[in-house]
Specification:
With 309 residues, the chain is of the alpha/beta class. The protein contains nine helices and ten strands. Helix 1 crosses helix 9. Bound molecules: zinc ion.
Length: 309
């Protein structure tokens, strides 16, 4: 079995205002990085559009249809100060959620050892009924709930190493003891959530905030001391990674100082827990990462780790 790479050209048609960091070139940088010789053995698939009822596992149907109906025919519609839609955005969001769903199908059916989904818009800031922080649907949350619904998993976990806290994933699973949400992120930083004391209704939310200027050593310590032991105790049957690469030192939106090797290390350690309790099942979804060079290099390191452990 190989690692599966899922993407879709429709994700390039989600346009944002000029100068916006979450731009189509991000996906082009990821695709370029994964064209290298060493990625030849990746299986590759196109993301299907998620059916509304799958997205509705995490978002009310009216929220989905309101976004569809709000889609502008031309130009850019601002949903909030950071989040915008163009004519291609709704289709891109359906493909991003559908890529997450397809990754779960392929990994759970053992047709892929694990999967990386390179799509946009990202997802982890989207709350139950609110688009936010460049995100329309919470793809990681949809993957976790879909795996439970479709395959009867009792427990799933989301591990989020994007530099921003995944307020949406935390909100969606705040009172759901069947899904653990773990996050390292810079604090203070947008969106402001993710303090240590935010632990969810059933102590299944695990936040490990880092300070501006922290680097690989502090990041790895947060993982090793706070996140991995909790993950092991919880014993998820699937691990979904909210793989944002904006904690890289070159990233313009934040001030953590991670390098490519830190993302590879985190990936390997998540895979180790997955091997212990989840039959190795890992589905990784692209979230942030706004310096194109850092994004390409970091995704390459992450996917190599997925391929080789
Ligand atoms: Zn981010």
């Amino acid at each position: 079995m190989s690692t599966l790479l899922i993407t879709h050209p429709a994700c390039l048609d989600h346009l944002t205002p000029a100068g916006h960091p979450e731009r189509p070139d991000r996906l082009r940088a990821v695709e370029r990085a994964l064209e290298a010789e060493k990625f030849q053995n990746l299986d590759r698939a196109q993301a299907p559009a998620a059916p509304f009822e799958i997205i509705a596992l995490c978002h009310p149907l009216e929220y989905i249809t309101e976004l569809r109906d709000a889609t502008p025919r031309e130009g850019i519609l601002h949903l909030d100060a950071d989040t915008a839609m163009s004519s291609g955005s709704f289709e891109a969001a359906l493909r991003a959620a559908g890529g997450a769903m397809h990754a779960v199908d392929e990994v759970l059916a053992k047709r892929a050892s694990n999967a990386f989904v390179a799509t946009r818009p990202p997802g982890h800031h989207a709350e139950t009924a609110r688009p936010m922080g460049f995100c329309l649907f919470d793809n990681a949350a949809i993957a976790a709930r879909y795996a439970q619904k479709q395959y009867g998993l009792a427990r799933a976990a989301i591990v989020d190493f994007d530099v921003h806290h995944g307020n949406g994933s935390q909100e969606i699973f705040w009172a759901d003891k069947s899904v653990m949400y773990c996050s390292t992120h810079q604090m203070p930083l947008y969106p402001g959530t993710g303090a240590l004391i935010e632990t969810g209704e059933y102590d299944t939310v695990v936040n490990a905030p880092l300070r501006p200027g922290d680097g690989g050593e502090k990041f790895r310590a947060a993982f090793a001391e706070r996140i991995l032991p909790r993950l092991r105790d919880f014993g998820p049957e699937l691990i979904v990674i909210s793989a944002g690469f904006d904690a890289h030192m070159r990233d313009p939106l934040a001030n953590l100082n991670l390098e490519e090797a830190d993302f590879a290390w985190a990936t390997q350690n998540i895979m180790e827990v997955a091997d212990q309790c989840a039959g190795g099942r890992v589905v990784s979804l692209l979230e942030g990462g706004y310096d194109l060079k850092a994004l390409g290099g970091s995704v390459a390191a992450h996917v190599l780790a997925l391929m080789h452990g």
